[in-house]
Amino acid sequence: MSIEFEIYDETIQRTLSFRKALMEDVALVHKWMNEDHVHPFWQLNLPFDRFKKHYRKALDDTHQTLYLGMIDGEVMSYWEAYWVKGDVLENSYSPKAYDQGIHLLIGEKDYLGSGFALPLLRAMVRLQFQYDATTKVVAEPDIRNDKMIHIFENCGFTPIAPIQLPDKKAQLMFCERETFESRWNDEYRKANL
């Protein structure tokens, strides 16, 4: 399984990496969707056969890419990077052609509350900004998920407005490339000298 992106994060002194999710990962992702800290927000705690169909459809969807996130090579998180154009979110604001969005969850409970969410999110946003035409990454966490909203803000996302999506009331948030790079590139350069 090839790594799509890898970076050493000096703040946690760990190597963060992402690889594309595969059909073989379905049982692991299904397990995570049934965790108490996940299912209230993702609402995908379905019977395995139904989840398997949902997951296969998500893998085949060309407007998004599914990833598994790793810390020091251990798979512990699930990510969906998507193009806003063609997504239900495009009706919530006026997106540019290459705006990208992000969904994430930390599946392994041992990694919760340990300060890993921000470095992982920062690494994924850096991966998304590798696409030169992308100038904005968008998030729409569940409005009840104060912890995630706080992590998005610490990463450089700005709250825009509460929005209603088909499956949740969400907080629309934008991370502009310029804001992200001015906040994090000096730290990245220092860590990788």
Q: What would you say about this model in short?
A:
The chain has 193 residues and is α+β, with helices and mostly antiparallel strands.
Task: Provide structural commentary.
With 193 residues, this protein is α+β, with helices and mostly antiparallel strands. It has six helices and eight strands. It has helices at residues 26-33, 39-42, 48-60, 117-128, 146-155, 177-191; strands at 3-9, 14-20, 64-71, 74-83, 100-106, 136-139, 158-165, 168-176. A hairpin with a 2-residue loop joins strand 7 (158-165) and strand 8. Helix 4 (117-128) crosses helix 5. The chain is globular and about 45 Å long. The mean pLDDT is 93.
What is the CATH architecture annotation? 3-Layer(aba) Sandwich
Quickly give the structural class.
alpha+beta
CATH topology: Aminopeptidase
Our estimate of the beta-strand percent is 25-35%
Low-confidence stretches: none
Helicity, as a percent range: 25-40%
Number of strands: 8
Rg over CA atoms: 16 Å
Provide the descriptors you would attach to this structure in a database record.
Acyltransferase_MbtK/IucB-like; 6 helices; Acyl_CoA_acyltransferase; alpha+beta; 193 residues; Aminopeptidase; globular; single chain; eight-stranded mixed beta sheet
Write the SSE topology.
Elements: E1 3-9, E2 14-20, H1 26-33, H2 39-42, H3 48-60, E3 64-71, E4 74-83, E5 100-106, H4 117-128, E6 136-139, H5 146-155, E7 158-165, E8 168-176, H6 177-191
Parallel strand pairs: 5-6
Antiparallel strand pairs: 1-2, 2-3, 3-4, 4-5, 6-8, 7-8
Helix pairs in contact: 4-5
